[in-house]
Amino acid sequence: MAKPLKAKATLSSVEDFLYELGPVRGDTITFKGIKFEVSKFERRRPGHNGPTLEINFEYPGSKTALNAFKGALFKEMFGHFNKIDLQKKKYGSYEALYILADGAYLYLEPKNTSGLAKGTVPPQIHEKGTAVVFSRALSSKKPFSTEEDLIMDTAIQKELKKIFGTKYGHRLPDWLHSFYEQQRAALIEYSGPQWEEFVYGNGSFVDFFEKHMDKLHRDLDPEVKVGRYEKWNPSDIWAVKNGKMQQIKDKLKSEIGKQTVLWELNAILITLMEDNDLVGISLKKIDAKSSGNIKLYNVDTSDKLRALKSYAHIELYDMSDISFEPDNILILKSVTTYIRIGPGGKYFIDITRSGKNLSFNSQIRGTAAQGGQAPIDLVVKMLNGNTFDKNNSAYPQDAESFEKKVSDYKEMYKVVSKYASSRSQKMNIDSWIEDVKNLYNKDSRNAIVTLMQLSFWHDALKNHAKNPEFWTDLLYYGMKVTSKGMFAPHAKIS
Q: Given phi > 0 = left and psi -120 to 50 = alpha, else beta, which region is 48?
């Protein structure tokens, strides 16, 4: 039997391949213990005569670890693609440069940040930075007309350096573009009203609502509490009309009782938004190559807000726009599976392990912005199945217990495998069962999550394989965007 033809290594196909190497959070991919991001430049870059892909990551600490990562990465690539030409060339801090089939370049760009904090900048730092810039731009009516203005403002830079501190100070330049674009986008909708100075942390509206979450419910019959603030409201900071902070807090206190349901509170917040008295703002990091824009979400009941240019319509898709990728749990490659939605997989949902359970994470392809997690209780409710349980304790905890329920999981496997995106990779069911048993002995948590995944996919595909609303709701629940009154009205800058 002839071997299947390998794929051609082009700019787009390699980019897609890199996103499949491991779990994805936002735009960060984890492979062999190293977190990296992919930057695509379709136009020429200095020192190159064609488009490029950059693999950006923190230097792992030793040349041995770096070479191990590089070796594993390109072993995977050489096994998947037809041809990748190696060219030795000095560019930036790394010498290895690769050319793809369409004349594009791929190279690794590790950053040596030894002694400095690695990974993403914590929200409490960059959100506080945004609050400082917003206070200057919106409250004092002295916006930054160019990014250079922000960079050259010594007072603001001094304050931002203090916020980022010595630990994250080296990451501040990465955020200046985002800070500038955030305030520029905010001014499009909110340059007119007089705003209080922006508050972050204690005394803020995030802090206020967090203290009242125990009184908020999604349903009263049966009683379903909201839980954490983030499960209801994606707003990171709040704009408050000048002089009205305490008045609005007092009004909200009087309206929020022990049996308040979300639609009641959301209706109040929409009225406050209409009058520009109080606006929750969700912040997403803006890629260096992109401009910021502002959109209003979850305001469908307001004629006034729907009439604004910034009102965001929920995108509608049919099943031709939706693809399923449960393959990883069928071949036991990993415990992460995917749902892709929109042209070219513009949006995707990764379902993966979170601690001992599952998380459903909405992502936007090719942006610096992260979507968020769908509240698991909402997922269970709309799934309306009979096999998936959100608690890992409901699943076999060891190989022996799994053996007793093998027939159940065989049936689930048969249903799910029909929708595998790479049918040629599907394993024999009996082989899969043996491998699951072995996985229990190696990593019982991954074995349990694999069965949780299979249960979810079984119920979802059996009940909703031809229902696009189910899959788009799953996406939008993660993004806290819906027309169904489940999440807070807010302005999103991304």
A: beta
